[in-house]
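User: My advisor, Dr. K., asked me to get a structural model of this assembly before our group meeting. I'm new to this, so sorry if the format is off. These are the inputs:
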Amino acid sequence: MLSNERLIRVQWGDCDPAGIVFYPRYFEWVDASTILLFEKATGLTKIKMLERYGGAGLALLEARAAFKVASQYGDDIKIETRVTEFRRTVFLVQHRVTRADGTLALEAFETRLWTTRDSTTGRIRAGDMPAEIVAAFQAPGSDPANGMRPASA
Amino acid sequence: MLSNERLIRVQWGDCDPAGIVFYPRYFEWVDASTILLFEKATGLTKIKMLERYGGAGLALLEARAAFKVASQYGDDIKIETRVTEFRRTVFLVQHRVTRADGTLALEAFETRLWTTRDSTTGRIRAGDMPAEIVAAFQAPGSDPANGMRPASA
Amino acid sequence: MLSNERLIRVQWGDCDPAGIVFYPRYFEWVDASTILLFEKATGLTKIKMLERYGGAGLALLEARAAFKVASQYGDDIKIETRVTEFRRTVFLVQHRVTRADGTLALEAFETRLWTTRDSTTGRIRAGDMPAEIVAAFQAPGSDPANGMRPASA
Amino acid sequence: MLSNERLIRVQWGDCDPAGIVFYPRYFEWVDASTILLFEKATGLTKIKMLERYGGAGLALLEARAAFKVASQYGDDIKIETRVTEFRRTVFLVQHRVTRADGTLALEAFETRLWTTRDSTTGRIRAGDMPAEIVAAFQAPGSDPANGMRPASA
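Assistant: The format is fine. Below is the predicted structure of the whole assembly, which you can bring to the meeting.
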């Protein structure tokens, strides 16, 4: 299964008066990491991907993070992002954030919904994940054991 | 049990290109809401409360949000915050974010740890929640059925 | 001339490791304050105002702030916002940010351009400020001496 | 004179409902760029540099930006940062933000003050820029014509 790695240098302004990363920043980075993973899979920006596949967005249903070790200004952290499961309309994203010495700083999880716009009413509603996108996450050399599970939403 | 209500007008810059609140903003508001609840309970700012009770911080162990309805620029939302459980060193915070019409926009949950600084090593470690702070959340007129449970961390 | 006042409680997460407001936050507040002033003048949200008057945006040409006294977590600050000059297509906004004791924390200034969308090419370009909007800033009881100057852009 | 270049990919969450970068973000990037430039010059993080040289901070006196072309999600921008002048206690920083095609997106300018802590009163006050730091900006091969001017604050 395709994954995306991204290095971030923690800046002064990312940190709070305790000198550690203000935690909403992690969700900013994690949100961007999910988009970057889809860009990597499809070769398209989020906007172009939605246009091409008739999507209206990657609606967030749930976000969660479990914090292990705080990060500070000057730290280099790595965010490793992968989709752990594609269901019919929903997909699960996992982000592992590690420090330069390899220790886990935090893990974050997103549950997202592929949405489309109803051509009659114009309303946003759940849509089936385009098979072409799901297939694009099956990168060459990926371990089938870690691959997509044909689950229902 | 004491709760805190806070109204927020969603601003243009809180929103993303889809025109809805960029979700890390909710965690910014939620983090501040937890602090404001402790200020309300103790009558002290976070900094003064930590000084008074020998605390080093309200370390975040886990944050989670379940999103129901998106909010947009110009919306007025209400954040209602309460501690749902005090354990020995850990406490659970719940935030209900509702729209002007009363519908639930999202719920967020934080698991936090009362930390102290070891006087010998200077290291941060879990500490027992000061009884005086826990008592301060027992606001007059609070429903005992919703009160604190004597749970272990 | 119409002005808008807005109180902001500085939150923990607004501050950096030095314990003072991370300065980009001031620009976030100032940007919102300009929009709120236009809402107050027109009775419309920014989106509806642009629709009504054929605008494409309030493009920022220049932003500047002069910092006097730092603000910290727990401080209550007031942002007082006014348009100091309407030119043909450009207007100047001034923001005075004061502390609870009335001392000046900072002043910020924005130079903004009323833009419209060319109906033929679809491109964004400078447009004349709608007279109705300019007139709306002439609040009852405003001092003519502080009023609009008929300047050219 | 030493300069620092930094590439930034504009993320979805950096942008507002108009689809362009929410301008306070530029100041976040610019603030970090100034710190990174000092790190490059001194080989120290901001915190260690302040410790080593008895500094209390790089207090911001003024920040200004002139915007030319908006940036959008997916754009790659380059921030080129240099100190244009060292005075006795004050220094001026210039940031040129360019797009991938080399066009100027914006220019930002900061006026900053080297501060120290009075050993008697503990108060923050202006301090002379350490000569060693100023010298560190004279990178090998720098053009003397663009070098430091011995100006008074």
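One thing worth pointing out at the meeting: The beta strands of chain D are 3-9, 57-67, 76-86, 90-99, 104-117, 124-126.

User: Perfect, thanks a lot.
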